[in-house]
Amino acid sequence: MYDAIVVGGRCAGASTALLLARQGHRVLVVDRSSFPSDVISTHFLWPHGMSYLNRWGLLDQVTAVTPTHTVIDIVNDGIPLSGSVPTSLLREHFRDLHGDDSGVVQSYASVRRRVLDQILVEAAAKAGAEVRTHCTVRELITEDGRVVGVRGRAADGQEFEERARIVVGADGRNSFVARTLDLPRFDERPRCTFAYWSYWSGFDPGRGQIHRRGRLGCAVVPTNFGQNMVLVWGPSEWAREFRADVPGNVQRALDFVSPELGELVRTQGTREERIYGTLDQSGFLRPLHGPGWVLVGDAESAKDQCTAIGMTHAFRDAELASAALHRWLTGESSLDEAMAAYEGRRRSQNSAAYYDYVCTLSEMRPYRHDELQLFVALRGNQEETDRFIATHADIAPVSEFFQASNLFLLNDAAKESSAGYSVFDDFAATSRTYQQNLFA
Ligand SMILES: Cc1cc2nc3c(=O)[nH]c(=O)nc-3n(C[C@H](O)[C@H](O)[C@H](O)COP(=O)(O)OP(=O)(O)OC[C@H]3O[C@@H](n4cnc5c(N)ncnc54)[C@H](O)[C@@H]3O)c2cc1C
C-alpha cells in the first residue's frame, strides 16, 4: 500500500513524486516510457520554471549542461522589445501561490526533455520514490466509487496491481486516468497552432528570440549539445498546406517572420535531427480532483504551446498538489479541505484569464492596429515592457497589464517617444496580405 501512485513521470509526475517522497511519503511513480527520452514538445522555461528547479535543488544540474540567459527578445511585426521579468514580480508571484519566495532566479533556458525529465525522475528516485519505467497503467481499481489503485503491465510483460491512498494523474493531455474516469472537458478551444521544430548547430543567436509576423511565429533558443532549437508555428487552418513540404515551409516561414533569422539558419545552420511537429494542441480543462484521484499538469489543463508555459505550469501544480496532499497525509487536514485548497489556488481569477489569453493568442489572428500601437508604446518604457513580458509568461496578472487605465496611461506616456513611428505604411493592405495562406 503506497501513500500515492503517480501515473506519468515527467514534468508534472516526477516533480510531484519527488516532493511527496522528500516529505517522507511512500510513492510509486510509473511511466510507460523509459528515460532519457523526448516528448512531442519544445522546452523553453521562463524564470518561474527555472525558480521551481532551483527551489528543489535541481537547477545546477540543469545549468551545468544548458545555456541560460537573462534577457529575452520579443519582436511583433517588426517592433522589437527586449527585457526580463522583474524579480519583484517573480517574488510576489511565488509568495501569492506558495506562501514563500525562496529560490527565485531571474534566468531563461531551453532544456531538452531527454535531459530535464531524466534529472527529475532520478531526483524522485533519490528522494525515495519507487520509479517503474516501461510500465503502463491499463486499469484503475475502484471500490465504492473511489479510486484505490492501478493495474497494468510492467516492463517484463507481467501484469501488476498496486494500491494507494491517492492516485495522481500526471499522464499528459490524453490522460488515461481522466479518460478512464470519463471526466468531462470544459472550456474547450479547438482553434490552436500547428508547430514544427528541430535542432541546428553552426550559429549563435546569443539569447532566446521570439518573433511574430502576421499569422506566423518563430523562435530560436540555444539549447543542449551546442545546438539551437528553431521553432515555427501558425494557425491550424494552414496546417494541411504546411505539411505538404515541411522542410521547405519551415524555411519559408522563417524567411517571412524574421528574414535575418531565416538567412542565419539557411547560410550558417546545419540541421542535426529530423523535424518534429504536432497539430493537436487544442485547449481544454478537466476537473482537478475527485474520490481517490487528483490531476496535475497537462492532464488537467491542456493549452497551446504559443506561450511556452506548460512545463512551468506542471511544476506549479506539483508544488501545489504535493503541499495539499502532504497536509492530508499527515492528518493536518481532511482530503476535502486539502483538495479545496489546491483547487482554490489553481482556479483563481487570473488562471482563467491567462487560459483565455493563451487560447486567444493561439488563434494567430494578425495583431490589430491598437495592439501594435501598444507594442510601439512600450518601446523605451523598460518597466512596462518587463511587466508585459511577465504578463505574457503568467507571472503578473493578465487583468492588471491589460486593464484600460493602464493602456491609456501607456499610450499617453508614449505620445512623444513613439511619435513618427508608424506601424505600417498601409495597415489595411498589410493586414489583407497577412490573411493569405503563405503555404497554399
Ligand atoms: C509543440 C509543443 C511545444 C511545447 N513547448 C513548450 C515549451 O517551450 N515550454 C513549456 O513549458 N511547455 C511547452 N509545451 C507544453 C509541455 O510539453 C507540456 O505542458 C508538458 O509536457 C506537460 O507535462 P506533463 O508531465 O503534464 O505531461 P507529459 O510531459 O505529457 O508526460 C506524461 C507522461 O505520462 C506517461 N503516460 C501516459 N499514459 C500513461 C499510462 N497509461 N501509463 C503510464 N504512463 C503513462 C507518458 O509516457 C508521459 O511520459 C509544448 C507542447 C507542445 C505540444
Name the features:
eight-stranded mixed sheet, globular, 17 helices, oxidoreductase activity, 440 residues, binds flavin-adenine dinucleotide, FAD/NAD(P)-binding domain, 3 domains, EC 1.-.-.-, alpha+beta, PheA/TfdB_FAD_monoxygenase, D-Amino Acid Oxidase, Chain A, domain 2, oxidoreductase, single chain
Describe this structure as you would to a colleague.
This protein has 3 domains: 2-66 and 107-186 and 282-353, FAD/NAD(P)-binding domain (3-Layer(bba) Sandwich), CATH 3.50.50.60; 193-278, D-Amino Acid Oxidase, Chain A, domain 2, CATH 3.30.9.10; 369-435. The strands form 4 sheets. Strands 1, 2, 8, 9, 10, 11, 20 and 21 form an 8-stranded mixed β-sheet that branches. Strands 5, 6, 13, 14, 15, 16, 17 and 18 form an 8-stranded mixed β-sheet that branches. Strands 3-7-4 form a 3-stranded antiparallel β-sheet. It is an alpha+beta fold and 440 residues long. The mean pLDDT is 95. It is built from 17 helices and 22 strands. Helices cover 40% and strands 24% of the residues. It has helices at 13-22, 47-55, 59-63, 87-98, 113-126, 176-180, 239-243, 246-257, 259-268, 310-329, 335-346, 349-361, 369-378, 382-392, 398-401, 404-417, 427-435; strands spanning 2-7, 27-30, 44-45, 68-69, 72-76, 79-83, 108-110, 130-132, 136-143, 146-153, 159-169, 186-189, 193-201, 209-213, 216-222, 228-235, 270-271, 276-278, 283-285, 289-290, 293-295, 301-302. A hairpin with a 2-residue loop joins strand 20 and strand 21 (293-295). It binds flavin-adenine dinucleotide. The site of flavin-adenine dinucleotide (FAD) has 36 residues, from strand 9 and helix 10.
